[in-house]
Prior knowledge:
Layout: E1 2-6, E2 9-13, E3 15-19, E4 25-30, E5 37-38, E6 42-44, E7 47-49, H1 59-62, H2 67-79, H3 99-131
Helix pairs in contact: 2-3
The structure holds zinc ion.
Residues 31, 33-34, 36, 49-50, 52-53 line the site of zinc ion (ZN).
Amino acid sequence: MLIVLRAGQPEHLRLVRTACTYGGARPWFLCPGCGSRRTKLFEVGDRFVGRTCGRLVYQSQQERPGDRLALRAKRLAARIGGGGVLPNTLTGKPPRMHWRTYALIEQRAAAAWAASVEARQAEIVRRCAGLGRTLRDLPPAGDQ
Ligand SMILES: [Zn+2]
């Protein structure tokens, strides 16, 4: 039993241990919601629960299509002086970097950015299809 204080009130969390293959024991929380073993509990509303009971999702599950590619493009752009901004606003080759390296990173950043835009467009098309609309029915960019 682990007792934690929440807003000054004690909350009892049950702990269990399971034997490890090569000796020792591993501690687990028992989720107050479903009783399953959990390595982590999260504060959701007025209690601690496991990820499933809290209906929490991993960050990767919240991302839109293309987000990872856009992040990759920004990271690559940052390596070649883009300051993390988009590939088409690069400021130039950093000192002491080979031109060949610069060109390779620039090429990869541009490819990642293009792929992220494509993924976003595909997602928009997919959603429009679900709504029975087309891209022409949408307001121009910036009007939203
Ligand atoms: Zn649970």
